[in-house]
Amino acid sequence: MLQRNIRLRREYLYRKSLEGKERQLYEKKRKIKQALQEGKPIPTELRNEEAALRQEIDLEDDKTAVPKSTIDDEYANANERDPKILITTSINPSGPLKQFVKELTLVFPNSERMNRGGQVMSEIVASCRSHDFTDVIFVQEVRGIPTRIIISHLPFGPTAYFHLHDVVTRHDNKDKELKTVSQAYPHLILNNFSTKIGERTANILKHLFPVPKPDTKRIITFANDADYISFRHHVYRQSGGPKSVELKEVGPRFLLRLYKIKLGTIDQDEAQVEWEFRNFINTSKKQKVIGE
């Protein structure tokens, strides 16, 4: 099994390395197609390759003409089955961290909570792969306060690292309206993820949730403001007329601050870093990483 995972990872990295070459080939074919459609001469730099490229163009259809990206490979099967998530903690978690993780299992449908014990991360990831989990969520703490959450997509990544701020659990939230949590698949609201890294982050977050039914009254919100992502969990119901809606907070609530995305799983220290927060990034107050 270990050798098979290593081989599959190498194949994945090879596909990723070809992405740039495939993009260049796609652009060459696009220029030839455009020239033929507009009745213009083939660009001079492509005339030596015209015969071979036109032969490939004749064999392509709408699906094969556009090259796949790394993200397509990572989430290629996302629409075929619902997410299956394992949530665990650092070793020897405190009572507050256990409570927070317990509430996260109510937030994410089809998730399971695992007491980590003495298991190392590579063992956990290997077990998740063998049991068809799609994601691992790993929560850490400092002196009983949850401070970091890591979301690792299986089998090959990506892995997103977030700082946790202002965590308020359902247990601690005196203003919570409901005592029970609906298990219906929630509608998802993703607000202000407008940059390239923002779209990447939204893509990682949205694939943690299955497709809901249209009549679901449960809502999960990730709203970005100045690169702090606010998480909220609500249910709604109609009260009175058809345009009158009553919104109730379920909890928990917290802020996420992205600081790294890695092209690999959480146990792969050698995996390439796709993006990482640097101190100099924050020198300009106007520059936003995730959204405007």
- Give helix and strand order, one letter per element, not per position: HHHHEHEHEEEEHEEEEE
- CATH hierarchy class name of the largest domain: Alpha Beta
Number of H/I helices: 7
| Cα radius of gyration in angstroms | 23 Å
The biggest beta sheet, please?
11 strands, mixed
Portion of residues in beta strands equals 25-35%
Low-confidence stretches: none
Cα end-to-end separation: 45 Å
User: What structural category do the secondary elements indicate?
Assistant: alpha+beta
CATH architecture of the largest domain: 3-Layer(aba) Sandwich
Number of domains: 2
Helix content percent band:
25-40%
- According to CATH, what is the topology of the largest domain? Rossmann fold
Shape, principal axes of CA atoms: globular
CATH superfamily of the largest domain: Brix domain
Protein name: Ribosomal RNA processing Brix domain protein
Domain Brix: 83-267
InterPro entries: Brix (IPR007109), IMP4/RPF1 (IPR044281)
GO molecular function: rRNA primary transcript binding; snoRNA binding
What's the gist of this structure?
The chain is α+β, with helices and mostly antiparallel strands.
What attributes does this structure have?
292 residues, alpha+beta, Rossmann fold, 2 domains, eleven-stranded mixed sheet, 7 helices, 27% strand
Protein described:
With 292 residues, the chain is α+β, with helices and mostly antiparallel strands. It has 2 domains: 1-68, no CATH class; 85-276, Brix domain (Rossmann fold), CATH 3.40.50. Helix content is 29%, strand content 27%. It has helices at residues 2-17, 19-38, 50-59, 70-74, 95-107, 121-130, 196-206; strands at 85-89, 111-113, 135-142, 145-153, 159-168, 187-191, 218-225, 228-238, 245-249, 253-263, 272-276. Strands 1, 2, 3, 4, 5, 6, 7, 8, 9, 10 and 11 form an 11-stranded mixed beta sheet that branches. A hairpin with a 2-residue loop joins strand 7 (218-225) and strand 8. Helix 2 crosses helix 3. The longest helix has 20 residues, at 19-38.
